[in-house]
Design a protein that fits this description.
two-stranded antiparallel sheet; globular
Length: 129
């Protein structure tokens, strides 16, 4: 099996170790040099749009994801990793409708979906010491 690529959302933060920086898209790559090969990114929808325009934006962003998967080949993509609430890039909430749609797209293409819950888990998983 040759599934070595990961897709993440622009604005996501998944950590600052070498591997996690490969799927972090908040401008930290420049500080540490090249990251692992196979890191792909797509743009999340703009949740601040009105309902009608948000629906159109979600459809456009889903098409962007589908096109990327088609171009790269689903057989080469191991997973898509997202933050449902992006904290480092200015607290952006990824719309539930988009998450549901990308779950269906990843399922149809045999790609794992990882929902990284760092921001939403803070203070809910015990004491921070």
């Amino acid at each position: 099996m040759n599934k070595k690529k990961f897709i993440s959302l622009e604005g996501d933060f998944h950590g600052n170790s070498y591997g996690s920086l490969s799927v972090t898209n908040v401008g930290l790559h420049e500080l540490f040099g090249p990251v692992l090969d196979g890191s792909l990114k797509v743009t999340p929808p703009n949740a601040s749009l009105d309902k009608e325009n948000l629906e159109k934006d979600i459809e456009n962003k889903c098409k962007e994801l589908i096109d990327l998967i088609s171009c790269e080949g689903s057989e080469t993509i191991a997973a898509m990793i997202i933050e449902s609430i992006q904290g480092v890039s200015g607290v952006r909430i990824i719309p539930n409708e988009y998450i549901q749609k990308i779950r269906e797209i990843t399922r149809q293409n045999d790609i794992l979906l990882i929902v990284d819950e760092v921001t939403t888990g803070i203070g809910r998983l015990g004491d921070i010491e």
